[in-house]
Amino acid sequence: MDEPLPALESPPQASPPAMSLAARLLNVFAIPGEVFAGVKAGRSSIGNWLVPALLSAVVGTLAAIAILSQPVIQQQMREQQAKLMAKQVQAGTLTSAQADQMLALVEKLMVPIAVIVTVVASVVRVLWWALVLRLLGQMFLKVKLGYSKMLEVAGLGTMISVLGAIVTLLLTVKFGTFETPGLRFVVDDFEAARKSQLALGAATAFSFWLAGVMSVGLARLGDVPFLRAAWLVFAYWVLQETLLGSLF
């Protein structure tokens, strides 16, 4: 009597090859799925979020200094501040002398304040995105995600914003005006003050790219289909830009 053949065992799935930090920072642009698969399988690494946050702070600082040093932009900001002060003088809340003093003070402190805000925002943005991704996973996808791992996803995803800041900086220096190409240009009477149009103003190729990469990270670490994660991330992104602008 023939003996039954032994059951064939499925070969164990090979773990993704380990990447160096430099490789993760670069590969997140081209193969984010593999990068985040390595993040999920590997040990937690503070460098995955701290280094991108520091790079964002450095690039943002250089961008702020370069942008605010452009004569055209300086003139635009002076005119905007002068209009605001003129309204205060007309309302009787400020005298002309006080308005002139405040204008001089604002012009003097403009760059230091911009640098401080940029550095703080670079770190806070990573921490915030990690919290958002974790909450989206737990509340809507019903998966448990560690904050430290989502911090790595948010940090590595921030490299998209770093590249976007570099491109914006180069365009600003080249053309002398602070403009980023986005969907705002499809609206004839675009007004940044109108909340209904803030998402259009923020909708650049890099912002879409960033949301897509964050979606990949959430999908990989949550073991869910990409589209399930993507609609949540993009829905949050639209809500964020509508309510908070580009703060995060």
Strand content bin: under 5%
User: What is the gyration radius calculated from CA atoms?
Assistant: 23 Å
The residue fraction in helices comes out at: over 70%
The secondary-structure element order is HHHHHHHHH
Give the overall shape: elongated
Count of DSSP E strands?
0
Can you offer a commentary on this structure?
It is a single chain. The protein has one domain. It has 9 helices and no strands. It has helices spanning 21-27, 32-41, 47-68, 71-91, 96-139, 147-175, 198-202, 205-222, 226-244. The model is unreliable at 181-203 (pLDDT under 50).
Question: Top keywords for this entry?
Answer:
single chain; 248 residues; mainly alpha; 9 helices; 71% helix; elongated
What is the gist of this entry?
With 248 residues, the protein is mainly α. The protein has helices at 21-27, 32-41, 47-68, 71-91, 96-139, 147-175, 198-202, 205-222, 226-244.
Task: Please specify the SSE layout and strand pairing.
Elements: H1 21-27, H2 32-41, H3 47-68, H4 71-91, H5 96-139, H6 147-175, H7 198-202, H8 205-222, H9 226-244
Helix pairs in contact: 2-6, 2-8, 3-5, 3-6, 4-5, 5-6, 6-8, 8-9
